[in-house]
Amino acid sequence: MALFPTKSRLAHIVFEHDDRASKTFDVVLLVAILLSVGIVILDSVKELHDAYGTYFYVLEWAFTILFTIEYGLRLWLSKRKLGYIFSFYGLVDLLAIIPTYLSIFFINTQFLVVIRSLRLLRVIMVLKLGRYLKDAEFLSDALRASRNKIQIFIASMITIVLIAGTVMYIVEGPESGFTSIPMSMYWAIVTLTTVGFGDITPLTPIGKLMASIIMLMGYGIIAVPTGIVTSEMTQAKSRRKLATARLCRKCEQLVMDKEAYFCKYCGEELPELK
Fold first, then answer.
1. Which CATH entry fits the domain spanning 7-133: 2.60.40.1120, 3.30.70.920, 1.10.238.10, 1.20.120.350?
2. 261 CB-near residues (< 8 Å, 6+ apart)
3. pLDDT value at position 1?
4. What is the pTM of this model?
5. pLDDT band at 116 (very low <50, low <70, confident <90, very high)
């Protein structure tokens, strides 16, 4: 028995997720990613940085060296090295280690290692969550199907913001904080989304009336895209059900359950799914 795994076995452990060794590798990697991101978050708290900054610094470099070795290992094991380098995960893996090295030359760039949180996407593969992603697929289909409607909606919102910002700039002027049309448009966006920071406030009666109208419109703005996407999600779900539906040859009823072998209405054997 070899002391070290062969290159092909090592590649299987690193890139696949179907046996104990490969799953263990993925889980260890996942824990390391979570810990490294957690350390960066904690290090941004001044009190913790003052008390444990040195430990955080050492741990961050330890994780960076670990991820650098892992990146080099993936690159060495890849059959298509350029393909891995420029793939989504390859770029994320590279971006996960660069910030710490940049921190040698540039202040505060180490906090960019939160990019490592993107590597948590691997949890989908590690924990085999693919079977739970049907709802995400429905949402994705719905967003694609409603793309044109959403584009029209966004264009309408931009037009409203532009008009409202211009009108408020004319009505209120610099005296009320509306120093320019872009600043007035910023106010319109904040008001339209019902955030209302309060840093700019209309003072004239017409300005207050305009603000009231925009606030009321804001509630409708939340409902419109939600309704569009929800409608498309319902239709997408119906289409998927119909795609797996089978017509019973005896009673001519549609059976939606793709796992069924017999018609639930008459007991007739169902045709196989194509």
1. 1.20.120.350
2. 269, 270
3. 46
4. 0.56
5. low
